[in-house]
Write a structure and sequence with these properties.
By secondary structure, the chain is mostly helical. It folds into two domains: 131 residues, no CATH class; 49 residues. Helices cover 81% and strands 0% of the residues. The chain contains seven helices and no strands.
Amino acid sequence: MLWQLFASFWKIGTFTIGGGYVMIPLMEKEIVDRRRWMDREEFLDCLSLSQAMPGIFAVNMAACIGRRLCGVRGVIAAIAGNILMPIVLILLFAIFFRYFRDNVYVERIFMGLRPAVVALIAAPVFRMAKSANVCWRNCWIPVVAALLIWLLGVSPVWVILAAIVGGLLYGFVSERNKKEGGCR
């Protein structure tokens, strides 16, 4: 099992361009669909936990999944598999990039990769939104949060704190309405 875990994360780490969030669809396909090591709900739990933890997202995901599957040895196997090839590729890239950085074709390749990376990040965001019951009635919340951060320069810390307070108030009012027999 440890070798399978290592090999799965090695494959994910090797064929992912664009960082941790781009790995989500590959991880989900490998861990949930292909290997059936966990169900979607467990995977989303690991995803949420990994986002909340400090550190590199891809490593956090590997650690969470490895821990759930094989304990501490699973953490080591999954993280090693996940970071081995990217480290080698980054080192090779760093060594040879100075020879190719002004090449028009290399520049075009990087420009062409940008939309693909955006699409790879957008796919799990929409899937997560669906599983989190984001719908037309509450989709304004992430939109407003993004606009506050992007356009007005509001610190994400304040947006998160406001979301916590708003969620607590919503829960309190909903619970109160249930007890009083009112509608939400």
